[in-house]
Each structure stands twice: as structure tokens, then as C-alpha cells.
Amino acid sequence: xxxxxxxxxxxxxxxxxxxxxxxxxxxxxxxxxxxxxxxxxxxxxxxxxxxxxxxxxxxxxxxxxxxxxxxxxxxxxxxxxxxxxxxxxxxxxxxxxxxxxxxxxxxxxxxxxxxxxxxxxxxxxxxxxxxxxxxxxxxxxxxxxxxxxxxxxxxxxxxxxxxxxxxxxxxxxxxxxxxxxxxxxxxxxxxxxxxxxxxxxxxxxxxxxxxxxxxxxxxxxxxxxxxxxxxxxxxxxxxxxxxxxxxxxxxxxxxxxxxxxxxxxxxxxxxxxxxxxxxxxxxxxxxxxxxxxxxxxxxxxxxxxxxxxxxxxxxxxxxxxxxxxxxxxxxxxxxxxxxxxxxxxxxxxxxxxxxxxxxxxxxxxxxxxxxxxxxxxxxxx
Length: 381
Description:
Layout: H1 22-29, H2 34-37, E1 53-59, H3 64-69, H4 75-79, E2 86-87, H5 94-103, H6 107-110, E3 116-118, E4 125-127, H7 137-140, H8 146-152, E5 156-161, H9 169-175, E6 179-182, H10 186-197, E7 202-208, H11 210-218, H12 223-242, E8 248-253, E9 258-259, E10 265-267, E11 278-284, E12 287-292, H13 297-308, E13 312-316, H14 317-322, E14 340-344, E15 349-351, E16 364-365, H15 371-374, E17 375-376, E18 378-380
Parallel strand pairs: 1-7, 1-8, 5-6, 5-7, 10-15
Antiparallel strand pairs: 2-17, 3-4, 8-18, 9-16, 11-12, 12-14, 13-14
């Protein structure tokens, strides 16, 4: 059961050019055999130049199309727009994407399937950015990370991120196994990356969340976002200049973003029929997981498709899996996915004042499969 607008979606390129292929590609570039370091085949579509040291700089929210559109605000980064973009996974959201990059696994395997998703066997949602204390991150995501596997293969692996994220649930599921260096300021981050990159062979991972935060609060067409983009561009250029010349720098993103105007916001609470048969509403405004009451899946899919029409694509879990949205899906991950998933088209959003009041304060959103959200830059210098 689907709504319209699917021609505007960009499917994930797992195994070709996606976030989960970045670290495996770095491993090959470092001369590490994938079977030894990552226990998976070599990437088939993403090839990086050989080097003995790599720095991967992930800018949260820097979509490929946004960088193209506002290239004059980011002259250094836009000068590196030589390669075709890669894709985020589904949903195109931070928790899912950061885990894909850190593990080298697709969402259906690593199990971080959204900003919020059901804790199996309960009526609760796991908020992946505010990890609950009673959910063990190592049980939720039991696979060794790509960082840990590289370290076991003799590569020095370092994560440079804000101090507040050290030991968080999301850090544990996606970055465990690497040395963690807390760095809150730009200068600290650059200095830490330079120090780590001296090791041979090495992979250093930097993360910057400020552009994403600005986009959520003000929108990606705001002067605040454009000024933040310029700051990120300067940070990336300073990083390149500070690194040894034989160190390769790769700048990537976890997703893009779209601004959701007020007249394109549907509140589930204004449509009582959308609650019928739904036991739990999860996901986020651009990509909803609907956890249904027993026997209600088809009716829920039909109701949501009828009400939303061209504003979203509505699929049952099985349909979404067949389309490859999450890649191969482990049995333990299946119940975390909605029985019905709802992917917004264009710049629409599906809100709930009751369940997710905070989302209504956001201007920029992401999570769905539009090119603006799915396409991410792979900038190599």
C-alpha cells in the first residue's frame, strides 16, 4: 500500500557508495585486507586513494545538494566536489547514519533504525540520542565496530568528538574500540586529529554537529545556517592545512536536510483515524515507524495512505524490506522496525503534538528518502 511521490526518492546504495562503505574503503586504502579488518567483502563502488593515514571528518547535516546550492559559502569544500555523491542509509537520520559509518554495517544489521524505535517486547521507544539507562548498548548493537576491527588489524583508530558524548549509548554502539579524545572547540579538534594522524597506519574520525543543530533551529535557507556553513568550511580548510601532506582527508556527511513549511505539516492528533490500530508511534517527522495492534497492519497502511496521499509513501515493513531500504535485516532487528513505515515526500512532515511536541519547534528536518536528505558528499583531499 503506497502513496504517491515515489519517483522523487533516492534509494540507498549499500555496498556501492553509502555511509557503511566509507570505513571499509578506508581499510582498503590503508592496505588492510577487508576479510581481516572488517570481515566483509571489499567495497564494490567506493574506492579511495592509497595512504598510510586517513582522517574522516563527518559534518552532520551537510547534504550534497545543499553544498552544491550554497557552494559560494563553502569555497574549500565545494572545490572538492569532484566525485559522485554517496548515500545515507534509511532512515536518513543521525543515529542511524553514525552507526552505519562506525560499524560498516547497514541499518538492518546494526539495528539503529531511527531516531526513536520500539524496544521489542515493550510499549516504549528507545530514543537513540538520549539513551535510556536500562537498555544495554552492547546488547542493542552486539557486532564489533569497524573501528574495533581495524584496531585489531594493527591500525591506530581515534575518535575526536565532544566530551559530553564520551561513553554515551550512541558512542558505544558505533564507535567503541577506538581511542576517544574529547574536544569541544575547533582548535582542540584540529590539534587532536593532527596528533592522531601521525601514527602509521591510522584512521582518525572527527565529528561536528553544529551545522545540523543550526539547520534544525533556523532552517537550511537561513542566514544562520549559511554562516555556520562558512565556519565549517574554514574548519575543514584549517584541518587540511594542519595535517601532514601525506595524510588523506575525507569529508562526508550523515544526511542532508529540508525545511518543512507550516502548511506542509500534518498533525496526527488532528486526524483521529490515523490512531486506529496504532499501538505506538515512533520514528520522526520525516520517517515514521507505526507499531500496530495485532491484525491491524493492512488497515493502518490503508488509512495512512488514504489520508496522506501524495504527502508520503506508506509501506508495510515487509514491503520496505523487499525494496532494500534497510539492507538485509537480522531477526533481532525486525521488531524494532515499524509494522508500517511512512516516508514523507517533498518537504512534508508528519507530526504529533501529543507524542513529539519538540519536533514542532524545528524548521529543518531529515529522515526520508528524497535526494536532498539521502545524497551526501564524499570529498577527498
